[in-house]
Fold this protein.
Amino acid sequence: MKFPVRTLWPALGLAVLPLLSSAQTLLPIEQQVSAAVRWYEVRTPHFRVVYPEGFEARARRTAARLEQVHEPGGASLGLAARPVTVVLQSRNTIGNGFVTLLPRHSEFYTTFPQDPFLPGTLDWLDELTVHEYRHVVQFDKAHQGLGQLGYLFGGYGGLGLTTLGVPDWFAEGDAVGTETALTRSGRGRIPNFEAYFRANLLAGRRYSYAKAVAGSFRDNVPNHYVLGYFLTSRLKRTAPDPGVWGTVLNRYYRFPVYPLSFSDKLRRTTGLRTDDLYQRTVQELDSLWRAEAAARPLTPATELPVAATEKVFTEYQLPQYLDDSTLVALKTGLGHTPRLVALRRGRPERELWVMGLHHNAEQLSAGGGKVAWLEFRYHPRWQQQVYSELRVLDVATGQVSRPGRRTRYTTAVLSPDGRRLLAVSTDSSYQHRLHLLDTETGQELRTFPNPENQPYLHPRFAADGRTAAVVRLETAGKRLELLDIETGQARVLLPAANDNIAQPQPGPDFVLFTSPRSGQEEVYAVRISTGQVGQVTNRPVGSYHPALSPDGQRLAFHEIRAQGSRVLEMPLSPAQWLPAAPAAPAPNRYADELTAREPGARTVGGIVPQDSVVGPALLARRYRRLPHAPNLYGWGLVQSPSGNGLNLGIRAQDVLSTTQAIAGVGYDGVERTGRVFADVSYQGLGPVLDGSVEHGGRRAIGALPVGGGGEETWQYNRLSLGTRLPLVLTTSRMLTSLTVGAYYQHEQARNYPFTRRPITEVATQPLNVLLGTLSFSRTLRQSTRDVAPRWGQSVLLTVRDTPFGRGLEARQLGAQGSLFLPGIGWHHALRLRAGYQYQQQQEYRFGAAIFYPRNLPYLSTNRLTSYSAEYRLPLADVHWELGRVLYVQRLKGNIFYDGVQAAQPGFRGRYYSTGFDVSAVFNPLRLRTPLEVGLRTVYDSYYQRWQLQPLVLNVGF
């Protein structure tokens, strides 16, 4: 799986505040690093860069780089962003970044990715700087018109609500366009970025705008980065004003609150709706790419047989030879999680291993009958502490080993005999290293010196096991080296150039590599003896990941197709290699014209790796978490959970996600009473510390001590204090988590007026409860097309007691478990559930601690036993459209049978409900986020009747 640079557009912010305001509700667990990590900050006029100890040098450079792009990065939108905080997260091994309003800040995940199609020939932090800063500018455009009104009345939560009508494709596509126009690289100049879009059009798959935005469960639809880059760039290239999107946003934020308002504002500015812009862009690209394909002579190659058909998008990538006739490849797709398969000429595909959280470095490795790859492993508690560990499969035995623990490797390759590994790491201070490892133990045998800290990319052993080819990144670009493993001496085969070379593969007197110099990624070869470069492949949409057979006679690679990448073979014939184009970016109409019209490109200056960014010296100082906890970002008037009242509240969270707090006042429109509340969660320690308080009034009609009845009021106080320990224990394909919690809950009423008290309410006597919970889940990772886990288990244990001897007495014990099993068909799933609850409820009754049958009234007896079976399946994957209003992707079904056995002295009863659900996954009003609603037909034996009920299964947020 790739981890693209992405922006996290805001959720509903304070619109969910009431759901979090109850003393019984817990604030969400956020991702942090260990409390032992010390944080520092440097400041410039427009940025505060917060970084962990040991990252100071790169933090200073990043801060200066941010100032460098502050004006030019927003020029085409007519705005320079307000001061903002940027957090550098260096404790994980994920290359990523995002901007959010909740609270307003940006985060850079600093590990340099091996994927050559993300940074290209840029330094990773420079790529993040330009791309993510553009998102900051996009958000700041909302401070006008109704957007500014939303901010005044709701803070950044209110401002975020006004951004929801801006398509995701605009946000990401515009940012990709900016990184392309302001740098020498950028994804707009990397052919792989557009390759799947190109493959679709060359195959005649011109999807509708609705499908292009929302996606499909059958076909590969290029993501919103790709779609948005071409849509936004076409308008920037062709509109009279290169700042046209700034005008569109200005008009949108003045009045954004009606359906399809972004499309309407685009039409008012350019005469084109979003649908029209999409159709014209696709028509232009189709014509352009078909003309290029017609002029491209193809090199012949033979496809290896696979099990997949063209009905569902399935990929076979990164081939490596196990022997002269068998290859191993990575299989993924809409219907498959990552797995290794063996491919052989004239033989059926054979599955070797299903991976866990695969760290796809765009590289796979095989040697000595083994296959090596990387998998992410999260620290059990600190979710910003993500390791990247080795996995080695012995193909003959089927056994997988884990050499080394808690490592930070970004790629690893086996020697031909499988006894050693070359691995690259980027540590928490941004130091790039190349290591020689023992395959059996993971022990580091050698670390090669890197005094200039130039990144190592895609190392690969030669057949002799004594030399290796590796790509290095320097100021001038990428260079290709041949490294002597024994002496550590490197020989430059290709000097540094702005050429996104990748995936080298040494041969007898040459080194194969991929390069986009012809306009798309193809395989090239450089002669070790002469330095002469020849083009080896020329395929319709490019060739990737070259691999040499052990006898040196055949070349394998994968190519991108509309139905998914496939592995091909061809004879290795140096005499037929074509003359190679110069080592420079090929002409690119979109990128070149975009850069020529970008107003910021004239002032930004050079953005290249390994340079020193000019600027004043920056003073570093400690950044302490607790003093920054009162970081207010949301406020306003929002609806209550019941929908019958309003809450006025504020919300705060520090940018390191250590402390969350909510406080407010509320009004219940039914009871005509008010309340005040406050919740806080401190998550900077191992155990999470939670606390909440609430004071309010109640109003009801009941029997009075003086006789008769009437409407009266009383007051209540609630307090909850406790701790929880959330742990992520995933080490394989099974997603595993464990959470334990312990809480003290107190509730007391004052001036309770009635003679009778409902058993679920607190009156004259207080309620003092100790609550303990244990939740464990272990489920098989799902593919996109799976409707539920096809294997797994979960357990929930709950204990509530009043052991203090004061106030109301009650006790409850609950236990429930689930077993997930595969269904009859592909992507079907069966879940079996059972639960048992005991409750001592003479004075007070707790709510249910186990699941309860659908549509049956709750029978709160002393003992409850519940059970359930449900079978979920996809009914149809469709592409139905209703104008611009609705796009339906999938129909799903669920057949269920629930039962309960209730028992207490003097009563025993057994009831059941059964029925089926039919739901639709759809996208309304051209939104990318899908919703799911449906209908339930259910029969229950208690009332002995059938009912038809609406279902809302997923609201998308």
